[in-house]
Amino acid sequence: MSEILVSMQQIEKRFPGVHALNGAQFELRAGEVHALVGENGAGKSTLMKILAGIYDADGGRILYQGREVTVPNPRAAQHLGISMIHQELNLMQHLTLAQNVFIGREPRRGLPFLLDESQLNAQTQALFDSMHLKLDPRTKAADLTVARQQMVEIAKALSFNSQVLIMDEPTAALTETEIEELFRIIRQLRARGVGIVYISHRLEELRQISDRITVMRDGHYVDTVDAAATSTDQIISMMVGRTIYESAPEVSEDDNADVVLEVRGLNRGAEIKDVSFRLKRGEILGFAGLMGAGRTEVARAIFGADPVDAGEIYIDGRRVHMRTPRDAVRQGIGYLSEDRKRYGLALGMNVEANVVLAAFKKFVDMAGVVNRRKTLEITRHYIDALAIKTPGPQQRVRNLSGGNQQKVVIGKWLTADTQILIFDEPTRGIDVGAKSEIYRLLNDLAQQGKSIIMISSELPEILRMSHRIIVMCEGRITGELSASEATQEAIMKYATQRGGIVATDEANYGNN
Length: 512
Hints:
Elements: E1 4-15, E2 18-29, E3 33-37, H1 44-51, E4 59-64, E5 67-69, H2 74-80, E6 82-85, H3 97-101, E7 108-109, E8 111-115, H4 117-130, H5 146-158, E9 164-168, H6 176-191, E10 195-199, H7 203-209, E11 212-217, E12 220-226, H8 232-239, E13 259-268, E14 272-280, E15 284-288, H9 295-302, E16 310-315, E17 318-320, H10 325-330, E18 333-336, H11 340-344, H12 351-356, H13 372-385, H14 402-415, E19 420-424, H15 432-447, E20 451-455, H16 459-465, E21 468-473, E22 476-482, H17 488-495
Parallel strand pairs: 3-10, 3-11, 6-9, 9-10, 15-20, 15-21, 18-19, 19-20
Antiparallel strand pairs: 1-2, 1-4, 4-5, 7-8, 11-12, 13-14, 13-16, 16-17, 21-22
Helix pairs in contact: 5-6, 8-17, 14-15
């Protein structure tokens, strides 16, 4: 059995209000590719950032080549032989590849301030040759594809004589051909004895490239398994093993309900790829998927916040054009952003001003005078109806809790008389009690005939609240599930499935 390069034991990490890592552990051997998987927020990247010196651990210990070490910063990690390649690449686009690889460590000639450009290029070329990379060290980083830039990042890490290489979502922006090239480099490094940590949401890749797989869930270590002997379904089961809500969905579906929103062939660059779906009256349609799946991008496109390259949108069977959010509001669509403080609220203004903000013209007479009696009346109505905990309409929104701020945003869109509501991560940053109140509100709105699109990264939330669930991966719809057939495992399977839509009668309506 290979030498153990890294052993992380009982690692603890807390952020304000979040216990990110709770007794987490991880082991890496020389010459292995060890995949680290889990849902969003499972603690994968946090654990590896501690190993790479980006975060300090609050507890536990790290053994490197059998010796206990502290890793106070990334430079200390590199000195030990530990390098991390982040999902967001860090190359300086205006510099050459050689300058990027050896930045801060450039060879000098004679005087310290004189750069030996020829030696710099020669050293970089030797490094590229050892990796069988056909790259010119004099090329500007900006002239390379993302895949090629990633190869340069790997070369840079190896220039530190790294024995441990951490790769965070390395194939997120790569084509199939580019992925094969990356895998070739990884196998080559493995053969040289480098230990590779491979963080990925793409479960179908794991059996191709990894030797072992460690699963994390909610900051805890779950298990480490042999990749070749473990099925994708088993991995998914370990990833989503918790059950928060055991009850069946609280909503009942009306198969005969009218279609109020229809999206056909929506496209926007690489973010949205041929997305089509229907939303019925009184329906809560869940959108599930992993980070970067394109769910928020679809919502913003429907709301007119971002332009699209192609596609059609129909409201009550009539084609509409959403060039701006104002167009969407006029068509009866409201959008509750995942970042409510930035996009949903005027934090410096009071509850009354926020509630009437999206429908301000309704409260202004011909002379331009605001009818304060009506604005106070509607504000008090929604304070009572939504159970907003506030001293009164004049309370500044910044002083309310997260759950009550979310209710104010809901009140704003109800005041605007929107019939279609898009909720993007509606309970993010909200405590358990407030979550239940938001769920009750969503159910009440659906029963009143409002139509809701709910985007959520919390699978139990999606399962509890949705009539139907649309699952996305890499900008595409890869699956559609009814409430009765939806499970956490089924959602995760589609969420990690690359390629086109899984055909169902509902999914194919756009071609009719």
